[in-house]
Specification:
It is a single chain. Strand 1 and strand 2 (about 35-40) form a beta hairpin. The protein has two helices and two strands, in the order H-E-E-H. By secondary structure, it is α+β, with helices and mostly antiparallel strands. The longest helix has 18 residues, at about 5-20. The chain has one domain (about 5-45). It has a two-stranded antiparallel ribbon with strand order 1-2. It is elongated and about 60 Å long. It starts with a helix and ends in an 11-residue tail after the last helix.
Length: about 60
């Protein structure tokens, strides 16, 4: 069965997003397209997200 225009457009969007985040170095994936919204998952390196030293708690 031939792919519809919508299916081909979805494939182009997902491929383009994959290329766009490819050079971030973080594992990522475009996981779906619904209407005009795209869901993308990025998993940055934990060392870039979690500080090595926690700030002190606020004074009370």
């Amino acid at each position: 069965m031939a792919a519809t225009v919508h299916q081909r457009a979805r494939a182009v969007v997902l491929d383009t997003l994959e290329e766009a985040v490819e050079d971030t170095g973080a594992p990522s994936a475009a996981i779906g397209v619904i209407a005009d919204a795209v869901s993308v998952v990025l998993a940055p390196d934990v060392d870039q997200v979690v500080p090595k030293v926690c700030p002190p708690p606020p004074r009370q």
